[in-house]
């Protein structure tokens, strides 16, 4: 019989689900029975389906900072979600809730608070997202990834834990990555990833620069669903994928340099793997600016070269890569001395703390 029961929640993007998965092996080892609450049709449902974790879907509305006619109907979905979550929590009787963020978590956290079930939330980015801002009054503790985040959290609820990193990331094989790519020479490997959906601006800049880049690098390019460039199929030294799952740790192990967006989960994996990198954060025009803050924090710490999306073109990309090659050893040294390690242990200590208080 399990010692404790935890309900995990989080969804809307892979970034709100994968950190939950990173916690599961250690929670299981400590005797937790685990259940998951997500939305009826979100990406989290598909991801959790691939595990053995029982999944409950609830009604979920999106809460927007801008005008949209759905702003009038979605609050009713949130209210229905609270009743859905209340019913599930009444049935399951968990000892604790762990919330990773995304709008589906708001009704779960509210229902848990009404039922006096302790709640631990986690915020990956430097400033709390809207869902975590709405949920924070109902949380017992809010774990954060960046030291700068603590100033945004009231009532001494903030705890600096870092972000949980999946163990599979550390189990990549450079040899397996090499075999997957089958490059015919020994040039350094440049790995390019634009987030789970890919990035058109990064894809375009890479492809415009491809001839120059291939003089110096072999290139592994994760370009997103529907973004394969047929004209470049079979190009010597260049391999492209829409999406990679099981082989991702091997490709990252094989990489010498990485170009990436600046989502918190991804950049902390780069830090944990000590990979020299260029971060191209999603611009403030297309987001709330969290990736820009994340990237600048890593630049300040000496872990990354940062190239703003607005400045991204063929010339700036090649210059940034030249800068990265020159500072590679310094970047690795800075990452080696970082105290921002894998947050799994610290987060589980927080979870145990609210259970036993």
UniProtKB/TrEMBL annotation:
It is found in: Cell membrane. Its EC number is 2.4.1.227. The keyword Cell wall biogenesis/degradation applies. The gene is murG. It is an enzyme of class 2 (transferase). It comes from Clostridium polyendosporum. Residues 6-142 form the Glycosyltransferase family 28 N-terminal domain. This is UDP-N-acetylglucosamine--N-acetylmuramyl-(pentapeptide) pyrophosphoryl-undecaprenol N-acetylglucosamine transferase. NCBIfam families: murG, PRK12446.1. It catalyses: di-trans,octa-cis-undecaprenyl diphospho-N-acetyl-alpha-D-muramoyl-L-alanyl-D-glutamyl-meso-2,6-diaminopimeloyl-D-alanyl-D-alanine + UDP-N-acetyl-alpha-D-glucosamine = di-trans,octa-cis-undecaprenyl diphospho-[N-acetyl-alpha-D-glucosaminyl-(1->4)]-N-acetyl-alpha-D-muramoyl-L-alanyl-D-glutamyl-meso-2,6-diaminopimeloyl-D-alanyl-D-alanine + UDP + H(+). One of its GO terms (biological process) is carbohydrate metabolic process. SUPFAM superfamilies: UDP-Glycosyltransferase/glycogen phosphorylase. Cell wall formation. Catalyzes the transfer of a GlcNAc subunit on undecaprenyl-pyrophosphoryl-MurNAc-pentapeptide (lipid intermediate I) to form undecaprenyl-pyrophosphoryl-MurNAc-(pentapeptide)GlcNAc (lipid intermediate II). Pathway: Cell wall biogenesis; peptidoglycan biosynthesis. Belongs to the glycosyltransferase 28 family. MurG subfamily. One of its GO terms (cellular component) is plasma membrane. It is a peripheral membrane protein. UDP-N-acetyl-alpha-D-glucosamine binds at residues 13-15, 166, 196, 291. Residues 189-346 form the Glycosyl transferase family 28 C-terminal domain. One of its GO terms (molecular function) is undecaprenyldiphospho-muramoylpentapeptide beta-N-acetylglucosaminyltransferase activity. Keywords: Cell cycle, Cell division, Cell membrane, Cell shape, Cell wall biogenesis/degradation, Glycosyltransferase, Membrane, Peptidoglycan synthesis, Transferase. It comes from the Bacteria. The keyword Cell division applies.
């Amino acid at each position: 019989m399990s010692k404790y029961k935890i309900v995990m929640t989080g969804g809307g993007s892979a970034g709100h689900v994968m950190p939950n998965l990173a916690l599961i092996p250690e929670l299981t080892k400590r005797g937790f029975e685990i259940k998951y609450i997500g939305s009826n049709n979100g990406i989290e449902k598909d991801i959790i389906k691939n595990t053995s974790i029982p999944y409950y879907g609830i009604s979920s509305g999106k809460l927007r900072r801008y005008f949209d006619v759905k702003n009038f109907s979605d609050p009713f979905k949130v209210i229905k979600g609270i009743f859905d979550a209340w019913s599930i929590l009444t049935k399951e009787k968990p000892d604790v809730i762990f919330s990773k963020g995304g709008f589906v978590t708001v009704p779960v956290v509210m229902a848990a608070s009404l039922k006096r079930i302790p709640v631990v939330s986690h915020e990956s980015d430097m400033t709390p997202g809207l869902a975590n801002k709405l949920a924070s009054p109902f949380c017992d503790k809010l774990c954060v990834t960046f030291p700068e985040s603590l100033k945004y959290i009231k009532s001494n609820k903030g705890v600096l834990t870092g972000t949980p990193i999946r163990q599979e990331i550390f189990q990549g094989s450079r040899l397996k990555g090499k075999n997957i790519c089958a490059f015919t020479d020994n040039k350094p490997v440049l790995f390019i990833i634009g987030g789970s959906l890919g990035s058109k601006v990064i894809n375009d800049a890479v492809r415009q620069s491809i001839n120059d880049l291939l003089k110096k690098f072999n290139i592994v390019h994760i370009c997103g669903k529907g973004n394969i460039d047929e004209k470049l199929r079979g190009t010597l030294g260049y391999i492209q994928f829409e999406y990679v799952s099981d082989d991702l740790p091997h490709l990252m192990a094989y990489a010498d340099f990485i170009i990436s967006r600046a989502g918190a989960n991804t950049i902390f994996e780069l830090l944990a793997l000590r990979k020299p990198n260029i971060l191209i954060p999603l611009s403030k025009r297309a987001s709330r600016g969290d990736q820009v803050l994340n990237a600048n924090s890593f630049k300040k710490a000496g872990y990354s070269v940062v190239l703003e999306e607005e400045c991204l073109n063929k010339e700036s990309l090649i210059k940034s890569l030249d800068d990265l090659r020159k500072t590679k050893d310094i970047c690795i040294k800075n990452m080696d001395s970082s105290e921002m390690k894998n947050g799994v242990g610290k987060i589980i200590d927080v979870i145990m703390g609210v259970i036993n208080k």
